[in-house]
Every structure is written in structure tokens, then in C-alpha cells.
Amino acid sequence: MPPNGHDKRRASSAESPGLDPSDRPQKHPKLDKTPLTPRASFLGLPRELRDQIYNQFFSIPNYDDPFDRRIERERSDVYSGTPRSLGWLLEEPLLQVNEAISYEATEALFSNHTVLFVCGPRVLLDVLSALPRSLTQKLRRIEHFWLTPPRDLYDTIYTIDEEELGPLFRFFSRHLRLASLTIPLQFLGTEYRELPPRTWYSIMCAVRSVGLLLAGTLSQFDIRYEPRNIMALVERRVELHKMIAAEPQEWDLVHYEALGAVQDEMEARGCEIRLVDLVVGLRRQPRTWEEEGEEAVITLRADLEREGWDCVKRKYEWQCDREWARLGWD
After folding, report:
1. Based on the number of CB atoms within 10 Å of its own CB, is 198 exposed (0-12), middle (13-18) or buried (19 or more)?
2. pLDDT digits over 255-271, tens only?
3. Which residue ranges have biased composition labelled Basic and acidic residues (predicted)?
4. Is 262 within 8 Å of 193 (Cβ atoms)?
């Protein structure tokens, strides 16, 4: 009887030299169709929990030297107006992760924390005006000073005040919703016979900040009254303690060079309000960077509901509008 097809295949397989049965094609095992467990990710957490993490991170004190955190024009030239590029300027690593996390972290930083900008007024204006409006509307608290002003600041301070500080504070008033602005003012030791350029710039910022208070576009202005160096603190520690213990109306601003200069500039601009009349709080605190020591934080607010202050508010609004219109700044 002739062999059928199955027997022929078996016979040919048996007759094929060198063919191992293990070389035959094997059937594939059935695939496991059970869905894979998704990998955990930070963005997979609820937004409320992510915001808590952001706020905890930004609550950690930063003791880095402000000189290392300054924003120079060379660095700002590569700034693109995105939260990630802002994180690079501010030396904030959390803002440099990716676009999604950097945007959320910037919202948390702007909404709940004081943002330090160590740069000149023109650079600060360029940085803030390039950010999305959805972020700048959340910016509530700013601390600002210029660590490396030009050497000829004594000769150009009023030009800088008019052409650079004016537009910057116009932007603060029109495009931000600031709750507080912090400016450092330094008191000096006996080795200084005149205020240094950095202090003169802060004096002009303080006068502008008082203007925002009186115009009703800033809720609170804080002055960090700090020693120029450790020698200034040693020589005037007792005077600082007396200042904190006394009522602001009892201060003799002749003994406080920077505060007295702010008062003189206010009077030169026609302000009839005394600086001490705006003081609502005063506290002593340890310094957060540079040399060890302590400083005073002077909190100023304007009670625009007080009798007679409404005309002051209208006067400052009119002066600001006239100045900014002349500069062509909208």
C-alpha cells in the first residue's frame, strides 16, 4: 500500500541527514493580554499635591551670594521669555526641568513667594515684559536691587531714574498686581563719607515705591535696612536697636543717611507726606546672606482712606500719567 502524505513527510524527515528535531519551528506561546501597570510620574500626581511640593521647595531659604545670582545683560540676551529660560536666569533648578513643570512651578513661585531680581532696571523690565501675561498677573511679591551699578552712577542717577526706573515702575503699576515690593537700604560706618552708588539706586527705587503706595497701586512696601558691612553693624548696633525700640515719629532721619535721603527726594518731588507717617511695622531679623549680623525690616503702607489723603492719591496719579506720557510708555 503506498504511503499517504503524512507518512511521506515522516519518511523524508527521517531520511534527511543532520536534521535535529529541536530545529523544527516551535509554536509561539500565547501573549499575555493583561494591561501593563502605568509607570509612576510626577505629572501623574494631583495638581494640589504638586503645588504643595513646589511651595515646599521654594520655602527653603537660599543662602547663595547675591553676586552669583545677579542677572547681567550678557545672560539676559539669551532669555526667550519662557519659564525655563527664567529659571536659568534666576538660578532656580526647579524651573529648568521641562516646559510643563517649569510653568506650574513658576505659577507657584509668583503666587506665594518673594522673587528676587538682582539686576538693573532695564534688564528687569525686559525680563518681565517678555513673560506670558498669564504668569505676570500672578506675580505678587518682588525684591529688587542692583548689585553692580555703573561707576558713573553719581552723574547719571537722575537720568537712570527718568529713563529706566520710570518705565519699570510704570510696568509695575499697569501690568502687575503687586502686593509687596522690597528694597534694601544700607546704613554706613564711619569709613564712608558719602552714600555708595548701589545705595543711591535703592533710594530712587524707594521713592518710586512710595509713589506707588500713594497712588494706590501697591499694597505694601518693605525696606530692608541693613548694614553696609560688618564694621557698620558693630559701630551702629546700639543705634539700630534704639531705632527699633522707638516710635517712627521719634526718628531723627538725620542720623539715618539712606532714610533721610529718601525723605529729601520725596520733598524735592513735592510730596507732603513724611516717610515715618507711612510706617506700620518694624522688626529685627538676622541677615539672610552676605556677612553675619542683623537688619531691620521697615513696613510701609498708605492709608488712602485717611482724611486729606485722597488729594495726595490724585496728585500722584496725575504726576505719574504726565511723566509716563512724556516718555511714550504705555
Report:
1. middle
2. 788 899 999 999 998 88
3. 21-33
4. no
Residue with cell 554706613: 188
Question: Would you call 328 helix, strand, or coil by DSSP?
Answer: coil
pTM of the model: 0.79
Residues 203-212 have pLDDT tens digits of: 999 999 999 9
309 and 183 assigned to the same domain = yes
Q: What is the pLDDT of residue 139?
A: 96
- Distance (Å, whole) CA 57 – CA 88: 17
pLDDT digits (tens, 9 = 90+) for 96-125: 988 999 999 999 999 999 999 999 999 999
Q: Specify whether the CB–CB gap between 177 and 137 falls below 8 A.
A: yes
Range of the domain at 98: 45-114
Beta bridge partners of 283: 297
Strands 141-145 and 220-227: unpaired
Single-letter residue type at 313: K
Q: Which residues pair with 222 in a beta bridge?
A: 182, 299
At 228, list the grid cell: 553696609
Does residue 260 belong to any structural domain of this protein?
yes
Tell me whether residue 57 is in a domain: yes
Percent of the chain with pLDDT over 70: 75
Mean pLDDT, the chain, as a whole number? 81
SS3 271: coil
- Answer yes or no: do 197 and 86 share one domain: no
Q: Hey, is 210 helix, strand or coil?
A: helix
Provide the domain count of the chain: 2
Per the domain annotation, does 158 fall within a domain? yes
Stretches where the chain sits below pLDDT 50 are 8-11, 13-14, 318, 322, 324-330
